[in-house]
Amino acid sequence: MEKCNIKALAVAIGALWAFSVLLLAWMAAFGWGREMVIVLASVYLGYAPTFLGGIIGAVWAFIDGAIAGAIIAWVYNIVAQK
């Protein structure tokens, strides 16, 4: 089996999650998904349904997603060896 590139998956998942969180905040500024932003704001400090709040949340989400992506790739590489 081929190994998964840990850095590549970490960046890919981090970027995807950051974009999703950013888009959600900007949509919530117009009323769509406001409850979801409130839930995520309890985890991501500074996240809010505003332009700046979306950017702050996206930074947190990138870090969070990158860590998750790295863990997923690391576990996959361990399991795939067997």
Question: Which blocks of ≥5 consecutive residues have pLDDT under 50?
Answer: none
How many beta-strand elements? Answer: 0
Specify the number of helices. Answer: 3
**Helix content percent band:** over 70%
Strand residue percentage:
under 5%
* Total separate domains: 1
Alpha-beta content class:
mainly alpha
SSE topology string: HHH
Task: Note the quaternary state here.
Answer: single chain
- What is the C-alpha radius of gyration, as a whole number of Å? 15 Å
Kindly report how far apart the N and C termini lie: 9 Å
Shape: elongated
* Largest β-sheet summary: none
Short description:
By secondary structure, the chain is mostly helical.
Which key terms come to mind for this protein?
mainly alpha, 3 helices, 0% strand, 74% helix, 82 residues
SSE order and pairing:
Elements: H1 6-28, H2 34-41, H3 51-80
Q: How would you portray this structure in words?
A:
This protein is mainly alpha-helical. It has one domain. 74% of the residues lie in helices and 0% in strands. The chain has three helices and no strands. The protein is elongated. The mean pLDDT is 96.
